Amino acid sequence: MDNYNVSAIRLAGRLLLGSMLILFLQGCASNAYETVPRSTSGKIQQVDSGTVVATRTVVIEGEATYVGRSSGAIIGSAVGQTAGEGSGRTLAAAGGAVVGGIVGGMVEKEMTKKVAQEVTVSLDDGGTVVVVQERKDVGFVEGDRVSVTQTRTGEAHVSHAHYQSDGIY
C-alpha cells in the first residue's frame, strides 16, 4: 500500500471520527429549560384549558439535511479513493461519494427521529384538539388538566396546568 492510500484511509478515519464526535456532542447538549421557537418571543398566544381524553406514543420522523448527506459523501469519496488506480480510483471515489451521500442522509434521518406523544384534549369551551409534540419527562395521561397554547400560525403546545392555591386550575 502506497503513502497515498494510507493517507486517504487516515483522512477517512478522521472524518468519520469527527462526524461521530459532533453528533455525540449534539446529543449530549441539553439544558434544564424547555426551548421554544424564536418566532414565539413577544407574540400573543391563545391559551385554552382542558382535560386529556386520550394519548398515544408516536414517532416524529427524522430529517435528512445537507449535513448528513455531505458528511456521508465526503467519507464515501475518501473511502472510494482507496480502491483501484488511475481512472478506476476516480470512478470509485465518485461512486463512494454518491453512495456515502445516500447512506449519510439515511443515518441522519434515523438519528433525528423523536419519540413524541399525540395528546387529545377536550377543551373547557367544548372543543377538542389533538397536538403531537416531542415527549419529555413523564408526558400526559388521561384525566390530566392541561393548558393548550396556540400561536397565530397554528403551532400548539400542551403543558400541565398549574394549580392555584384554592385548587382551581
Automatic annotation (TrEMBL):
It holds the Pfam family Gly-zipper_Omp. Residues 72-114 form the Glycine zipper domain. This is Glycine zipper domain-containing protein. It comes from Pelagicoccus albus.
